[in-house]
Structure formats: structure tokens, C-alpha cells
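Quiz preparation item.
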């Protein structure tokens, strides 16, 4: 049965949509694996992964099957009831991590909102209302709700919306002395990304995360790790905290968890989870059977030795070639990150021009990202074929040649 679709074009965005995004000039209409086709049938290689969301690429058969099977059974029942996919997913996440309790929502911002509220609630119940301060890192990114954007260490995202919530402090990332100077008996939580994502794919130093854990223990504060972007295999371990051997009290994740279907999760221990008793926090769509069925399939595919090892091997494949391109054309000073989350740092003459690289790449039929103005970001499918990596990097080199030659 065919469905009549009205013809739409990129100009319609400017006519009908709130102008808070500035999307590319083309409209993707179909995807398969790491390839995307636009309205004109042009094929592009996708190194963006929907900004680290499409963990298994486009239309992965296991995810399509999980979604269509669940779509024929049950879509939504609310949290007045529970459902089987929610319980299966929670069990799998808990078996694979430090956690023994899960809370499901629809996005990374909601997962962080829940994490911050839980941290404040735990401190309130155990120590009293004065223990409410949250310490976050400068240049961090934790979401766009008013609470999470205030915890985010980038004032450009939170300024201009009226008075900000109190009790939030920002300190430089990877600076243990600054964290030690800021933390106190009033601190209820320290929140860190294991790799700062939006501000440039900057990994935490081992000693820094270990020190943060030690300080949190010393001051009865909770360590929250924001793994919205790094979680679910992105770094080559199921969660990035596993690389460091530093276990958080609360972990937030989203993005790659649903492989393209909106879902977020907050994971924690039962001694903390009990402070979210019935009615204390909630969400209409969280734990939706469709989302959880898809996420369960993602975990089943990603949390296997062959996929996780493959991610590490693909990282090397990317890094080796990107470093060679950087040397040859003098455009990158460093290639950093883990797994399939890679940042190529632009060299001094190219500072501020990440957007130009994106545009040049698109002209060569390649989709890439930026992380700030100085870093080109790659966050492709975790199972991207080596042939697609090689072809995509060929196109990327052509884009760099185009730029360098002006």
C-alpha cells in the first residue's frame, strides 16, 4: 500500500521550523549501513552516526526486526504498568555494569536531569538540605533542560534564560587541584564526562578520574559519569569508565543506546536508587516498549567481544590515516579520542575552521562533524565496514586538498 507524501524541500525548513538549527543544504532520505542517500539520489558516506547515535549504522537488520516485532505487539502502556522489554533491558544493563538499578527516559538530558535530582535527593535525605552543591567541568556538555544546561560548563548555552539554579560550580577539566579546591562538605555530586564531547573530544586523564573518585569518597559526594556520548561501545568498552577502572555512583547514557530510537538511561546502585521512591521522579514515555526492545537488540549486538575488539581496531585504522593526512597537509596538530569517537584537532593556521572542513567534506559526498570550532569529529557506526572507512577517508583527503588549495 503506497502512502501519498507531500513534496518537501530544504527551503521548507526555513518556512515552517523554529530557526534553532541550521541544517545542511541536502535532505537525507534513506540509509543503509554507513551509506546515506539524499533526495537527488546522491550517495554519501556517513561518519557522523547521527552524532554518535546510530551505533549500528542505518537500518541494521537486528534493530529493524526488534522494532517491527515489538510494533506488532505493544507500543505504550505508561508507567502505571511495567513491560517486558523494559525489564529485559534493565537486567542486561545491570549484568554488564556496576549498577543494580535502572531508570529509563528518552534522552541524555533527561538521564542527566534524573542523575542530578537523585544526587541532590540522596544528599538531602542523608545529610540535610545544605548538602546540595554540584561541581561540573568547564567546557562540559550535559543537556539542554534548564537544570542540565546550567550544570553544563558553557555559559553561551545557559545565558539569557533568567536566573540560574544555585549551587552549581564549574572547574577546569583534567585539573585535580582545582577540583580539590572546590569540593567541600556541601558538595553532593561531581559530574564529569570521561571524554569531553561537544568541546573537542578530550579524554580524562587516568589520575584525574581516580582523584575525582577519591575526593567524592572523602567528602560523601556522588561521582556521576555522563556517558551519554561515550556509552554503549562507543569507546571500545561497553562504557568508558571500564577503560579507567573508575566506578561511578551514577551513570547517565543515551545516544547510542537506542541505535537511533530515542532512549536514555540512568544507572545506579540500589542503596542510592531507594531515594527515588514512588512518585519522587517520573516520565511519561520513559521505558517505552518500542525503545527498550530496540535498545535490547543494540546491547545484544554491541556487548560482544568481536564487536568491542573491532571498534578498537577500527580506531587504529582511522587514527593512522588521519594522522598521515594531518602531517601531509599540515592541517591537524593532534588526533585524539577512543574507539569510534575521534577528534582531529586543527593546527594553528586552521583554528576556527572546523565548519569549513564539514562543508568541503560534504562536497566530496562525506558526512563529518565538528566538536567546537577547532576540532573535526568522527562518530561513525561502531560496525562500519573497513571498506567504508577507507573510501570515506579517501573522500576526506580530497576535501582537505580542496581546502588547502583554496
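Solution:
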Amino acid at each position: 500500500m503506497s502512502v501519498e507524501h507531500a513534496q518537501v524541500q530544504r527551503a521548507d525548513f526555513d518556512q515552517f521550523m523554529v530557526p534553532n538549527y541550521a541544517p545542511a543544504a541536502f535532505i537525507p532520505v534513506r540509509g543503509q549501513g554507513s551509506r546515506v542517500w539524499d533526495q537527488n539520489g546522491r550517495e554519501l558516506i556517513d561518519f557522523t552516526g547521527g552524532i554518535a547515535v546510530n551505533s549500528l549504522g542505518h537500518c541494521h537488520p537486528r534493530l529493524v526486526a526488534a522494532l517491527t516485532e515489538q510494533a506488532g505487539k505493544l507500543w505504550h502502556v505508561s508507567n502505571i504498568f511495567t513491560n517486558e522489554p523494559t525489564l529485559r533491558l534493565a537486567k542486561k544493563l545491570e549484568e554488564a555494569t556496576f549498577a543494580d538499578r535502572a531508570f529509563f527516559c528518552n534522552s541524555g538530558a533527561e538521564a542527566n536531569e534524573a542523575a542530578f535530582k537523585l544526587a541532590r535527593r540522596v544528599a538531602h535525605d542523608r545529610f540535610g538540605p545544605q548538602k546540595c552543591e554540584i561541581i561540573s567541568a568547564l567546557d562540559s556538555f550535559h543537556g539542554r533542560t534548564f537544570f542540565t544546561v546550567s550544570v553544563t560548563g558553557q555559559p553561551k548555552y545557559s545565558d539569557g534564560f533568567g536566573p540560574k539554579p544555585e549551587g552549581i560550580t564549574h572547574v577546569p577539566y583534567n585539573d585535580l587541584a582545582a577540583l580539590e579546591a572546590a569540593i567541600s562538605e556541601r558538595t553532593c555530586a561531581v559530574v564529569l564526562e570521561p571524554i569531553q564531547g561537544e568541546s573537542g573530544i578530550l579524554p580524562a586523564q587516568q589520575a584525574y578520574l581516580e582523584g575525582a573518585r577519591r575526593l567524592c569518597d572523602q567528602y560523601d559526594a556522588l561521582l556521576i559519569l555522563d556517558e551519554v556520548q561515550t556509552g554503549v561501545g562507543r569507546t571500545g568498552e561497553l562504557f568508558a569508565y571500564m577503560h579507567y577502572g573508575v566506578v561511578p555512583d551514577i551513570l547517565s547514557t543515551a545516544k547510542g543506546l537506542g541505535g537511533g530510537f530515542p532512549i536514555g538511561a540512568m544507572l545506579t546502585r540500589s542503596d542510592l536508587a531507594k531515594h527515588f521512591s514512588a512518585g519522587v521522579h517520573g516520565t511519561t514515555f520513559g521505558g517505552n516498549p518500542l525503545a527498550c526492545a530496540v535498545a535490547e537488540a543494540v546491547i545484544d549486538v554491541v556487548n560482544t567481544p568481536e564487536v568491542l575488539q573491532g571498534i578498537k581496531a577500527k580506531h587504529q585504522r582511522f587514527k593512522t590515516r588521519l594522522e598521515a593526512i594531518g602531517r601531509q597537509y599540515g592541517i591537524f596538530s593532534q588526533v585524539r579520542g577512543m574507539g569510534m569517537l575521534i577528534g582531529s584537532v586543527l593546527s594553528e593556521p586552521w583554528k576556527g575552521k572546523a565548519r569549513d572542513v564539514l562543508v568541503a567534506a560534504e562536497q566530496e559526498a562525506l558526512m563529518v562533524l565538528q566538536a567546537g570550532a577547532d576540532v573535526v569529529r568522527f562518530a561513525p557506526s561502531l560496525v562500519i565496514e573497513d571498506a567504508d572507512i577507507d573510501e570515506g577517508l579517501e573522500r576526506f583527503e580530497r576535501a582537505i586538498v580542496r581546502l588547502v588549495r583554496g
